[in-house]
């Protein structure tokens, strides 16, 4: 097929496509016009124009590629007809492209590491987070070395050992020594990583409680698509809850017959004191969510029917972090990281890390979950009463007494 | 020799198979010929891949321009994109179905189904599969599964949208997300059909490989492709039934009020009656399949690339035995690493430690494979066919994605990376890109065997370079989003101040994805055009050693006219010193290649060694032996 004939063919084909596209658009336009009577009028003309524009651009590119392809073919055939050596050595083209890809790719990796690499999370703001960061950096160094070395070999060999009719490949089916080396070396490196990872993992999840520095309990309950925070109140322990007690006024299903529940406090944001261990008790009401607090390197799923616990110690206050990141609007956040429905992408709350003194003043201002309506619901006296006198005032309620005694026995 | 020679008695029937009366239906639709079934799997797989790629472009558009309206989307999607904006629920449906189609329909059925069916009988020297009828059923179950899955786009509540892992309770409770209604039921039906298909296929592959190898084809003479398909099939047989068990329990929970996966659930103020189950149970059952599944996806691709790299480097694959043992190692280990998907689910931390150890151990056989590929390229004589380009691309992606796996396999690092874009980037490189590249390498390499014609090499080059570059442009930057704590499956990045800096990256990634998608037009055109108009192939276009290239170009039911060839040697005698051409097919006996035989070729057979020694004494020209 001659080049000229081909172009004419392509042109006719392209024309045919264009005609079809225009025919279709007019049909669509008619539909839109018909539908416009009921729906508010949307001007689709511009839209179709832009869609057609992009389709035309693409077809033009295809046409261009086809022409280039045919030109190459004509060139090669004419070389062949004249008895000259093959026009384009595609092995050389491809091997050179690999070499080029290697150079540009390495630069791209460098660019990514420096530009996007500087847009990442700031250094960890928790004790265990520092260990995770160290672990990460070590892994990053090892993998980057391997990544670059293997790619230099891969694309380098592709470039150097391109096909040549004069050469024969080196018959080299195996070498047990080399194979042993590159089995054992990765195994050793991985052993180091596994050991360090294992120790870090243990230090995060197997904490020995220091009786002098007991963690502050905070309970997080997730539901579509919000978090509810519960502080333990004066007794330092979040009380029982039972999902069967859930009502409109008691959204968490807190069991107020448990004395420990009565002083539990609600909060709009998570405020925690710096350098004090925090024990997060994570639960979920409906589906699985994930409590993700990346600045502190904390993540654990919240699972309905199950309690999960994560303990961490913040090391930087929000103000410190604002100075370090040079961003006066910096906020610690926690949000959902497990697909949970249509609002998954916006399920966040602010975390404020403050000094112990600030924390105490803030905490004193927070309301308790137990309010007058709930007192009525649970047959508790409406007048606010100190915890101590509870057992006297509820003496008439035998069930409450039992619970109290059980609670006391614990 | 343990090979059962069942096939010999059919020889004379197949030499002239005039007695077969083939109709259009028996030849092209309900075909029982493994080559036709392979083509059916391939073309269905390609169509599903195009659909899933289209879905990904839709949600990439949403991610790049969350504030813009695209009225043409409403034209196609109706109420799911009212006003030209994809709805949040539908966004989740898109990612769910994209993942499901790609993992199961494209990379499992499209890859394993195509090449196991095509190559197992041809490369081991069999007339067809052990059970051609089961083979046909396998395809039709797969096809029905695809249809059911696609049909879920045409129901009012939309397709399943709980992510491709369909974690309960989200996937069970209809009020949690609309997709968990009928759409999820269809997902489950489709999955049961799919597993049935893949089991029928797997049993067939294993029994064919074990029982129907031709004379001389002992296990250690099988090409690495066959080893990979064999081990993949075993993985599938052992792990897919567990998924069915999980799916059946989920059907019970959804439709018959049981509580296998549900407990203590309150939707708003509506207290559900289910008690005593655990959503974590599903995760264990799912990932017991799910992790072997990613090796079901990658192992055939590794097998294909081993073959393609060896043929086109004109060099034996380096460390054939190590390659097989590392495949076996991956097969065994892949059953005890599923917990690394569950480090932060609240699973006992002790288990987290154990799964971290097993997970990082699996990196060793993967590293061995990578180094062996590199050693095969070293001092080769590399022909850059399109298949070879894709095989090299696979090695590159396998390295990149494998290395990021070392981060995620480490439980401590996974705490902050779990369910972020780092995970998305990781598995799209190692499972998505690498496996797709393996599949494309296979298509370009065995196209002459499938259709008797050649694909256009130059379009192949264009296809490779555009796809290779675009895939890196798409997935490399996504790692950094993950390192900044951006979770996956977010409908828009607009609600978080810190994510706004990634919006420009998202736009860039979307354009790169569109470029990758358009590059596939070059492939699709090349593929379908060449079926009818491609250059007619010669019998052995790549000068390859394996058995399939000794079969005639035109397809016969029974593969070889006359007797099935006998195998004498391993499949990787490329550029053997002392031989005049740079390849020696498996069917050439050592007696015809006296000048190139090496002592270890005789595997300790004293008589053969003696004959060789005598020959060498009488022909003392050995200066080109090395």
TrEMBL record, chain A:
InterPro entries reported for this sequence: CcO_II (IPR045187), CcO_II-like_C (IPR002429), Cupredoxin (IPR008972), Cyt_c_oxidase_su2_TM_dom (IPR011759), Cyt_c_oxidase_su2_TM_sf (IPR036257)
Domain Cytochrome oxidase subunit II copper A binding residue range list: 213-365
Cofactor note: Binds a copper A center.
Family affiliation: Belongs to the cytochrome c oxidase subunit 2 family.
Keyword annotations: Copper, Electron transport, Membrane, Metal-binding, Respiratory chain, Signal, Translocase, Transmembrane, Transmembrane helix, Transport
Organism (species): Pedobacter mendelii
Swiss-Prot/TrEMBL cofactor(s): Cu cation
Function: Subunits I and II form the functional core of the enzyme complex. Electrons originating in cytochrome c are transferred via heme a and Cu(A) to the binuclear center formed by heme a3 and Cu(B).
Signal sequence extent: 1-29
TM annotation in the entry: 53-72, 93-111, 138-161, 181-201
Descriptive protein name: Cytochrome c oxidase subunit 2
Entry keyword Transport: yes
Location within or outside the cell: Cell membrane; Membrane
EC numbers for this chain: 7.1.1.9
PANTHER family noted in UniProt: CYTOCHROME C OXIDASE SUBUNIT 2, CYTOCHROME C OXIDASE, SUBUNIT II
Protein's UniProt keywords contain Transmembrane helix: yes
UniProtKB/TrEMBL annotation, chain B:
Main location: membrane
InterPro entries: Cyt_c_oxase-like_su1_dom, Cyt_c_oxase-like_su1_sf, Cyt_C_Oxase_1, Cyt_c_Oxase_su1_BS
Protein name as it appears in the record: Cytochrome-c oxidase
Domain of life: Bacteria
Membrane-traversing stretches: 41-63, 90-112, 133-155, 186-206, 226-252, 285-305, 317-338, 350-375, 387-409, 421-447, 459-482, 502-529
Domain Cytochrome oxidase subunit I profile: 24-550
Keyword list, A-Z: Electron transport, Heme, Iron, Membrane, Metal-binding, Respiratory chain, Transmembrane, Transmembrane helix, Transport
Compartment(s): Membrane
Gene3D superfamilies, sorted: Cytochrome c oxidase-like, subunit I domain (1.20.210.10)
PROSITE patterns, sorted: COX1, COX1_CUB
Organism in which the protein naturally occurs: Pedobacter mendelii
Similarity annotation: Belongs to the heme-copper respiratory oxidase family.
Protein topology in the membrane: Multi-pass membrane protein
């Amino acid at each position: 097929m001659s080049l000229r004939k081909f172009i004419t063919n392509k042109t006719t084909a392209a024309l045919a496509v264009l005609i079809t596209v225009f025919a279709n658009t007019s049909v669509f336009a008619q539909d839109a016009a018909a539908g416009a009577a009921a729906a508010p009028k949307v001007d689709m003309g511009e839209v179709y124009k832009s869609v057609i524009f992009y389709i035309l651009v693409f077809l033009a590119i295809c046409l261009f590629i086809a022409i280039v392809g045919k030109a190459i073919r004509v060139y090669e055939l004419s070389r062949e007809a004249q008895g000259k050596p093959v026009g384009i050595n595609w092995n050389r083209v491809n091997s050179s492209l690999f070499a080029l890809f290697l150079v540009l790719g390495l630069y791209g990796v460098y660019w990514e590491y420096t530009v996007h690499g500087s847009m990442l999370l700031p250094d960890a703001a928790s004790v265990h987070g520092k260990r995770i960061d160290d672990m990460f950096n070590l892994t990053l160094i090892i993998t980057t070395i391997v990544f670059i070395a293997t790619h230099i070999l891969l694309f380098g060999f592709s470039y150097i050992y391109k096909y040549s009719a004069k050469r024969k490949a080196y018959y080299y089916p195996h070498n047990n020594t080399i194979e042993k080396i590159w089995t054992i070396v990765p195994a050793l490196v991985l052993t180091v990583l596994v050991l360090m990872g294992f120790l870090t993992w243990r230090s995060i999840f197997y904490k020995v409680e220091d009786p002098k520095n007991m963690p502050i309990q905070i309970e997080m309950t997730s539901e579509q698509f919000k978090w509810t925070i519960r502080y333990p109140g004066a007794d330092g322990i979040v009380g029982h809850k039972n999902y069967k007690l859930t009502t409109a006024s008691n959204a968490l299903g807190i069991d107020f017959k448990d004395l420990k529940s009565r002083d539990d406090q609600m909060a709009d944001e998570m405020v925690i004191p710096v350098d004090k261990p925090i024990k997060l008790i994570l639960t979920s009401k409906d589906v699985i969510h994930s409590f993700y607090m990346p600045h502190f390197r904390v993540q654990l799923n919240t699972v309905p029917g199950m309690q999960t616990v994560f303990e961490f110690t913040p090391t930087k206050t929000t103000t410190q972090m604002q100075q370090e990141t040079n961003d006066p609007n910096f906020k610690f956040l926690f949000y959902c990281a497990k697909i949970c429905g249509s609002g998954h992408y916006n399920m966040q709350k602010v975390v404020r890390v403050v000094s112990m003194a600030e924390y105490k003043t803030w905490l004193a201002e927070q309301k308790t979950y137990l309010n007058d309506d709930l007192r009525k619901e649970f047959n508790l006296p409406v007048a606010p009463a100190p915890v101590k006198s509870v057992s006297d005032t509820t003496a008439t309620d035998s069930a409450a007494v039992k619970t109290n005694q059980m609670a006391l026995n614990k | 020799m343990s090979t059962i020679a069942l096939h010999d008695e059919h020889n004379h029937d197949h030499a002239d198979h005039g007695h077969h009366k083939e109709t259009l239906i028996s030849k092209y639709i309900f075909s029982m010929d493994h080559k036709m079934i392979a083509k059916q799997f391939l073309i269905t797989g390609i169509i599903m891949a195009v659909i899933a790629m289209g879905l990904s472009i839709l949600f990439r558009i949403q991610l790049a321009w969350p504030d813009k309206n695209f009225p043409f989307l409403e034209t196609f999607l109706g109420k799911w994109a009212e006003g030209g904006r994809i709805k949040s629920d539908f966004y989740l449906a898109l990612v769910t179905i994209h993942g499901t189609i790609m993992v199961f329909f494209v990379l499992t059925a499209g890859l394993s189904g195509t090449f196991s069916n095509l190559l197992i009988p041809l490369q081991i020297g069999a007339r067809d599969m052990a059970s051609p009828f089961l083979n046909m059923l396998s395809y039709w179950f797969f096809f029905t599964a695809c249809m059911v899955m696609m049909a879920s786009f045409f129901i009012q509540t939309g397709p399943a949208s709980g992510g491709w892992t369909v974690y309960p309770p989200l996937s069970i409770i209809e009020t949690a997300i609309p997709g968990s209604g009928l759409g999820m039921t269809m997902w489950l039906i489709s999955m049961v059909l799919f597993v049935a298909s893949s089991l029928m296929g797997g049993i067939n592959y294993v029994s064919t490989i074990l029982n129907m190898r031709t004379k001389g084809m002992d296990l250690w003479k099988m090409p690495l492709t066959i080893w990979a398909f064999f081990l993949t099939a075993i993985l599938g047989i052992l792990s897919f039934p567990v998924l069915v068990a999980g799916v059946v329990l989920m059907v019970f929970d959804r439709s018959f009020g049981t509580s296998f996966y549900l407990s203590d659930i309150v939707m708003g103020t509506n207290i559900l009656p289910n008690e005593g189950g655990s959503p974590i149970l599903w995760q264990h059952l799912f990932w017991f399949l799910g992790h072997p599944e990613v090796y079901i996806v990658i192992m055939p691709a590794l097998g294909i690339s081993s073959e393609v790299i060896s043929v086109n480097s004109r060099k034996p694959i380096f460390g054939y035995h190590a390659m097989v043992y590392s495949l076996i190692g991956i097969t065994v280990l892949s059953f005890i690493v599923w917990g690394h998907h569950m480090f932060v689910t609240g699973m006992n931390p002790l288990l987290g430690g154990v799964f971290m150890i097993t997970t990082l151990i699996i990196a060793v056989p993967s590293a061995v494979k990578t180094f062996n590929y590199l050693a095969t390229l070293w001092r080769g004589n590399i022909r850059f066919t399109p298949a070879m380009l894709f095989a090299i691309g696979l090695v590159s992606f396998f390295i990149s994605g494998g290395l990021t796996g070392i981060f995620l396999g480490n439980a401590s690092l996974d705490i902050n990376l779990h369910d972020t874009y780092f995970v998305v980037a990781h598995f799209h490189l190692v499972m998505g890109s690498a496996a797709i590249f393996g599949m494309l390498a296979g298509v370009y390499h065995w196209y002459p065997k499938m259709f008797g014609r050649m694909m256009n090499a130059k379009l192949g080059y264009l296809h490779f370079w555009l796809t290779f570059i675009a895939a890196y442009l798409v997935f490399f930057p996504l790692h950094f989003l993950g390192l900044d704590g951006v979770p996956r499956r977010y409908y828009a990045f607009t609600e978080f101040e810190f994510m706004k800096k990634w919006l420009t990256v998202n736009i860039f990634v979307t354009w790169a994805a569109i470029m990758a998608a358009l590059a596939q037009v070059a492939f699709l055109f090349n593929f379908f055009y060449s079926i009818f108009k491609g250059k007619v192939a010669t019998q052995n276009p790549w000068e390859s050693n394996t058995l399939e290239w000794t079969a005639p170009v035109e397809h016969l039911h029974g593969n070889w006219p006359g007797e099935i060839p006998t195998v004498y040697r391993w499949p990787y005698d490329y550029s053997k010193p002392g031989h005049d051409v740079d390849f020696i097919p498996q069917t050439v006996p050592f007696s015809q290649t006296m000048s190139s035989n090496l002592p270890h070729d005789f595997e300790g057979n004293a008589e053969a060694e003696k004959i060789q020694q005598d020959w060498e004494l009488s022909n003392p020209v050995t200066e080109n032996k090395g």
